[in-house]
From TrEMBL:
Coiled coil start-end: none
Gene3D superfamilies noted in UniProt: 3.40.630.30
A Pfam family per the record: Acetyltransf_1
Domain N-acetyltransferase: 6-202
Protein name: N-acetyltransferase domain-containing protein
A GO term, aspect molecular function: acyltransferase activity, transferring groups other than amino-acyl groups
PANTHER family: L-AMINO ACID N-ACETYLTRANSFERASE
PROSITE patterns, per the entry: GNAT
InterPro entries tied to this protein: Acyl_CoA_acyltransferase, GNAT_dom, MshD_Acetyltransferase
Length: 207
């Protein structure tokens, strides 16, 4: 069975380039990917350096075929990422905008609009711990690798006494939403092009 040869381990710094390659392969039409390999690597490096991060990889025959990333320190990490890479980000965004890169343009538009929208519907209360990314190589879809990674993450979250965690997903990503709902996430609201979900973790009572 596939699960018998899949290894789940903590991501190391030596894995980051392979992680970025997989990210760029899977998330082709996402804002981050369109910022380029160097910035995507710096993005994941920022989380890998943080103690509040759970960053796991799934490997098959020494090749990374999936990964999952959660953190309890999203706001500080992303703020520092933007600050530390302001020049590179600005340069890349200007270049891609001049190239009429639709993904970059729509991503910027969405982020600007979210700053100014303050309707009650969009006041979403997320948990401190967030699932930021889960990716599975297209050639390994349907083999329950995502379930294995989520189970490993939740085991570690429970060890850390985390009672719930959240995620955001694009409203039009029906496949991802079905998966999250299947594994126990519940929708808690929406903001711009995103919908937000939370999952409460069950702790078995000792008899």
């Amino acid at each position: 069975m596939m699960n018998e040869v899949i290894k789940v381990e903590v991501v190391s710094k030596e894995d980051l380039e392979e992680i970025v390659e997989l990210h760029c392969k899977i998330f082709r039409n996402y804002f981050l990917k369109n910022l380029g390999f160097e910035l995507v690597k710096k993005y994941y490096q920022a989380y890998d350096d943080d103690k509040g991060t759970i960053f796991l990889k799934a490997s098959y025959n020494n090749e990374i075929v999936g990964f999952v990333l959660t953190t309890s320190n999203y706001s500080n990490i992303i703020k520092n990422f933007y600050k530390d890479n302001f020049y590179l980000l600005s340069k890349k965004i200007v270049i891609e905008t001049l190239k009429m890169n639709k993904t970059i343009f729509l991503g910027l538009k969405s982020r600007v609009m979210n700053v100014f929208k303050k309707s009650k519907e969009e006041n979403v209360e997320e948990e401190e711990n967030c699932l930021l990314s889960i990716a599975i190589d297209d050639n390994f879809r349907g083999k329950k690798i995502a379930d294995v990674l989520i189970n490993k993450v939740e085991m570690q979250l429970k060890e850390n006494q985390v009672k719930a965690y959240s995620l955001s997903v694009k409203k039009d990503n029906t496949g991802a939403k079905k998966f999250y709902e299947k594994i126990g996430f519940e929708k808690i609201g929406g903001k711009g092009e995103l919908e937000y979900y939370t999952k409460k973790l069950n702790f078995r009572k000792e008899e």
